[in-house]
Design goal:
alpha/beta, TIM Barrel, eight-stranded mixed beta sheet, binds S-adenosylmethionine, binds iron/sulfur cluster
Length: 292
């Protein structure tokens, strides 16, 4: 059996993947907005437990095409451990096409390009990375632990290793005051990284986090749906992506958009301009339907 510990989070695109908790929690666990692993103490799972779960999955589930390694920054585990896990997955599931995991900037900083290349050869071919913002003050306020230049540096280590990146930007993270600069700088950082996938999420204050505490004190300057659309317009307008799949389909978003860049950039901007010109006709997702 697979006994998951605590609440499990996975990217929307891993909905059909086998999820294995290679690690529990997040080794950094400090970002002001993130409540996901606050109740967990970080640890790497014993290999024997994981091998038993892989064996169980091979006996009880249908063909496995994709595996997602949870929790919050599984890439931080030693590369020998991750390599052994990837070997076991490939040996057990003949239909396996991809192994992926979350990779925090801290995990990317400690993994060498050679380690990531070796793991890529063993099947770990995609990381999810929360860029969140390209603006240094916003990154500092979020306590992300890196500035924009460091974010670019570590993300490009993954590219040098041939690993695909799926990245996230947090709309609204700079409040009203920094909204425009947050969008412009985030586009600059995304352009410097050229991720294969780019998603936006709307920053959502959650109880039990520093951001949630700030909200309770009335200190969070939350953007309304029109302001979020203007910020997204500024972001997309600044993107110079060579081949990036863009989505704002995460449940936190107020507008659901998708396209391939650069091909669909003009159409995405047209939809956003239309939204901004006629907000009353726009199909904003109501607050009660949104979530994390
Ligand atoms: C489980 S985290 C893993 C990311 C990875 N550890 C990293 O730091 O790159 C996935 C993403 O969920 C998003 N997220 C987490 N808490 C959020 C919140 N309160 N509001 C909006 N998005 C949130 C952030 O974009 C974050 O990068
Ligand atoms: S966003 Fe990522 S690095 Fe930051 S606390 Fe959440 S899981 Fe950890």
């Amino acid at each position: 059996m697979i006994a998951y510990e605590g609440t499990l989070f996975r990217p929307p695109s891993e909905a059909n993947s086998l999820i294995l908790q290679a690690t529990i929690g997040c080794s950094y666990n400090q970002c002001t907005f993130c409540a996901m692993y606050r109740d967990k103490r970080f640890r790497v799972r014993p290999m024997a437990e994981l091998l038993a779960e892989i064996e169980w999955a091979s006996q009880n589930l249908g063909p496995v095409h994709k595996v997602f390694l949870a929790d919050g920054d599984a890439l931080v585990a030693k590369s020998r451990f991750l390599g052994e896990l990837c070997d076991a997955l490939r040996a057990t599931f003949p239909d396996l096409r991809r192994i992926s995991c979350y990779a925090s900037p801290q995990a990317l900083a400690i993994r060498s390009v050679d380690e990531m290349s070796l793991l890529r050869e063993k099947g770990l071919t995609q990381y999810y990375l929360g860029i969140e913002s390209g603006h240094d003050q916003v990154l500092l306020d979020l306590d992300k632990g890196v500035d924009a230049e460091e974010m670019i540096r570590v993300a490009n280590k993954a590219h040098d290793a041939g690993v695909a990146l799926s990245t996230m930007i947090l709309l609204g993270a700079g409040g009203r005051e920094l909204s425009q600069k947050h969008a412009v700088e985030s586009a600059r950082v995304v352009n410097a990284i050229q991720p294969k996938f780019l998603s936006t999420l709307v920053m959502t204050p959650v109880e039990g986090t520093p951001l949630g505490d700030q909200e309770a004190r009335g200190e969070v300057d939350e953007l309304n749906p029109v302001e979020l659309a203007a910020e997204l317009r500024e972001l997309i307008g600044g993107l110079e992506c060579e081949a990036t799949i863009f989505r704002s389909n995460h449940a936190s978003n107020t507008l659901t958009l998708a396209g391939v860049l650069p091909k669909d950039k003009r159409e995405l901007l047209r939809v956003l301009d239309e939204t901004l010109a006629h907000p009353s006709r726009a199909r904003f997702v109501p607050r009660w339907q949104r979530g994390l």
